[in-house]
Design brief:
Elements: H1 2-14, H2 16-31, H3 36-59, H4 63-67, H5 74-107, H6 113-165, H7 168-183, H8 186-214
């Protein structure tokens, strides 16, 4: 797995010019007075897409056939993708959140650290959930087909949510659940969020390993 991480990190290094451009764009946003929470979201989502894009590099030109001549298992390959996603996505998110906090504190005398990091944590939760959905889809369908599959999935989820919203018992149950969450302390909300993300991650990993074990190339 260490070799796989080195491979993906070298892919990251080869994109240094692209990332310098991204940093310059973010700097322009900050100088223009753009909300810093947008910058955190911008960097986090960008890191997510780059982490997922390494799958396309691996499958390019029948790359899987060559890759699995190495002493690695399919499960190890999938686990490395999640680890790389955590290191890259989580690292970029943490750096952007800390930098944003420093800049916002310098700008605003009424800066509240708890509120800032709570909103940043929400950004991470959204980013990580999207990543946990996208990784198994990319492993199953490949980069090109996964775009269409993701759009179909989003449409289905939206349609289901709209249908369920019209079902009064479920609407009431959802409102009650939200009301209970609002009664929790900050630590309670944090623990609930961490448990939810952990469950999503476990389900995604299981799906990814199952998909890769059945893949033929």
């Amino acid at each position: 797995m260490r070799g796989l991480l080195v491979k993906d990190l070298r892919l990251l290094r080869n994109q240094k010019q692209f990332f310098l451009t991204v940093i310059m764009i973010a700097a322009v946003f900050m100088l223009a007075g753009q909300d810093l929470s947008f910058i955190v979201s911008y960097y986090s989502i960008l890191a997510m897409f780059f982490a997922i894009s390494t799958i396309s590099y691996d499958e390019f030109n029948n790359g899987y056939a060559t890759l699995f001549t190495m002493p690695i298992t399919r499960k190890q390959y999938v686990m490395e993708k999640y680890l790389f996603a955590l290191l890259l996505g989580g690292g970029v998110w943490a750096a952007a959140a800390l930098l944003g906090a420093v800049i916002d504190a310098a700008r605003d005398a009424e800066f509240v650290p708890v509120e800032w990091f709570a909103s940043s944590a929400a950004v991470f939760a959204v980013m990580w959930t999207l990543m946990m959905v996208m990784i198994p889809i990319n492993l199953k369908y490949g980069t090109e087909k996964s775009r269409s599959a993701s759009l179909v999935l989003m449409f289905v989820v939206f349609a289901v949510i709209m249908m369920l919203a019209k079902f009064e018992p479920l609407t009431l149950a959802f409102q009650n659940a939200v009301a209970r969450l609002e009664q929790l302390s900050g630590i309670g909300v944090l623990l609930f969020g961490a448990a939810t993300l952990a469950a999503v991650t476990i389900i995604s990993m299981a799906a990814g390993v199952r998909t890769m074990s059945k893949k033929q190339f």
